[in-house]
Batch of 3 targets.
Target 1
Amino acid sequence: MDRTSLLQSLREKCGERDVVTDQADLEFFASDLYERGVTPCAVVRPRRVDQVQDIVRIARQQGCAIYLRGGGRSYSNAFLPQTEHALLVDSTGLDEIHKIDAENLFVTVGVGLTWARLDEALKPHGLRAVFWGPASGLNATIGGSMSQGTANNSSAKNGTSSDAVLSYEIVTGRGDLLTTGLDAQEQGLPNFRPYGPDLTGLFNADAGALGIKTAVTLKLEARPSALGGVSFAFESHANMVKGMRAATALGLSAAIIAMDADTADIRSGETGLKADLQKLLAIMRTAHNPLRGLVRGIKIALAGRRVFEQAKYTGHFLAEAPSEAVLRASERALRQAVASHGD
């Protein structure tokens, strides 16, 4: 590998500002939440798909490995370079929202877009993504979730990040462009994913090893207008699991959060819910985020402090609905299903 030639070629294709060689910056980009990889020879931030294709072709010519980075919030060591003869591709420059189709309920975005920005863009349409990201959604990129495979507290109902994908735009290891799913058809709409062999599924949770994701099309759904939920105390872990299974089978709980007493105590702090509930509900009305859902579940539990402060285990079952009447019916059904396992 000729580093001088490599950097010159990258700068010609991507521009001086998007080829990073400062040592401190390289070390930062080669780290995730807990670990640090081998410092790469450069970090490059493409802003168009043709630049990604150029990067791949240049790396092939130079015999240079490619590692892909999203928001850098991973703790799985999936994107950390293992050799100094490497380029680290920072995908955050690919953050364009290509299309929001409110009628056919899909959105196509660049993989560097964060879940938080996507959610903000969908709010005016009264929509949200079926899978709305991990707990680190403020900084986590959509491509990072798709490449590593992500679950959240709603996965029992909606599945993981892979279940929300309709199609990908992929740059292959030779620099060619591949589109999967019905997006590959001329004038086709990605209303469902498989059409013949499911090539989309091949690239789910591959950590970028099989190709570089540049865009993804996701399923959308209506944002609920009514938010609520029920909470239970459990005497045993086995009963808590039975309660979670019962709620999951109904398909009415938008998110399920369960924890032991020590975890609940650490998460909740010293103040109870009664002072914070109105503020928390206001937050929940504008955000659909598993981390906020976790907070809300804990606070709901602490509202009944006399019951829950002695509980060995607690389970919190968040419900969503298009109206208050439907919400109340869902909460009643959840209570009936879980109550026989609670205490």
Target 2
Amino acid sequence: MRFSALRSKDFVLYTAGNASAMVALWINRVIIGWLGWELTGLASWVGLLSFFLFAPTIVASPFFGVLLDRIDVRRAALVSQTVLATTVCILLALQLTGVLTIWLLGAIALVIGVTSSADRTIRFVLVPRIVEKEAIANAVAIHGINFNTARLVGPAVGGVLIHAYGTDIATMVNAVMILPFLTVLLLVTIRDRDGPKSEKKSFLRDFADGLKHAFSHPIIREAMILTCILSLSSRGIIEILPAIADGEFGMG
């Protein structure tokens, strides 16, 4: 079967819930960028908010990868999604009460950036443990399609919501779209790690071993270099679109 991973009901359920949460994540990035532009009118602040959302992925993700080998993955996923949902709800409350400032928005963006870096790592760990081993490659491919579809759809939906209903309603929709994934995480069956248990090493030793393996493996190394180039050259475009759309073209 071409889409062998879709034979797993748990994976289908996970993919559906994950799709909603990832679209919400990309809607949120547009909302934060637009709020930053509304509050300051400065492209520099919009860029800094984008940095807060993105930079933690580079710095923190490898450490979260080591940590996930030592803790319960389902619990970690529930914690990360709960933090994201709570942070978005706090943002909504600040908007509705009219007390949101650029400094509070910056703090919220940083919390979301750090939590999202953990959440992204958790998703990569979860997928191979939901499907059978022979379907892992297919599951990873579908997960990648899911992520990139959300990256295409989410900003467009966020822009339409802001234009039609304003940032308050957009943030409310954003919060609601995160919730289904929390339920999904409680329902899916997650297998234990495959293979024999390895000897326990220190956190930093495991971290160093991971780096050594990544840089010594030609395919992983080349993929990391390519991703780095794309990320530094074009990855942040979506987050700074509010400044371009309104500041450069005056289109709102």
Target 3
Amino acid sequence: MLVVSNATLAGFAVALGVGLLVGAERERRKGEGPARAAFGVRSFAAVTLLGAVAASLEGLAPFAFGGFAVIALVVAGYLRSSRDDPGLTTETAWCLCYLLGVVAMSDARLAAGLGALLALVLVSRPWLHGFLRNRLSETEVLDAILLAAAALIALPLLPARAVDPWGALSPQTVGRITVIVLLVNAAGYVALRLLGARIGLALAGLFGGFVSSTATIASMGRRARSTAGPQLAAVAGAAMSAVATPFLLMAILAVTHPPLLARLLPGLIAAVAASASYALIFVRRAAHAGPGVNPDQLGRVFELRYAVSVASLMAGAVLLGAWLTERFGGAGAVFGITATGLADVHAAAALAGALARAG
């Protein structure tokens, strides 16, 4: 008697579900009559099951046969519909569904998640096209591509090993600081576009403070200087970044040296109350300020030269702190932590916790 495991049944069920989900979205755009597209809900369900069957059979031959069959059908379908619709979205989704059927037999949850994501991308076509063509300018698209290239391509390629004599700073650390500044600038820009200067910059400052309050304050200063109108809102954003700092310090000290956190907890709670009270003053003033910023006055999403200069200043402060610690020992460590805090208070807290744990 043939025994089929629960994992195998789950794989086939997920493969069928992914095909039906993606195929249902494609069926709505397939059209009707002789000019309708070649692939619909039944075709997509069949191709995911084909991938699942190919993966369940032993050897490479079934997978290769299924792959060649899928490619042949894609070519035939495209030749049939290319005159009316030269796009390749349906054909690409068809090939991907075959591969998702293969994946479903080894990791059903991954295949289900990727299938749902594919269906979401397909169904969001009108919104994506309208957003990219009508809401974003060429400059904004270019800046988004540069930011993605810096974070996903350039940053991982930088050496992670420290290059200074004290082992305190690596090129990847400097690159990470640069990317953080770029991301904070971009977050402030998006917040201004979506929420306006009165609320957007305050929220951007609060969330940016959990990453780097120093970079956030520097970015808000640039925003206030370069954009007409939102000076009060930029001050509110800079002040809100200070509200996030004590919370993050508590988390860092809880990991590095809990006894030190216990001694500093009253001061950190007072810092939260003081920074929140101070920030709310400017948030209220910004809320009652004049009209928001015209989108044409926002300028660039970020400036790479500015981000590099901020990262260089922060890196210099870290190097100064490392030199003081190495040169003067325990007494110099106090000044070293202070100098490091000028660059990044979170790094200074981590350094203090590590030194306290080491005695």
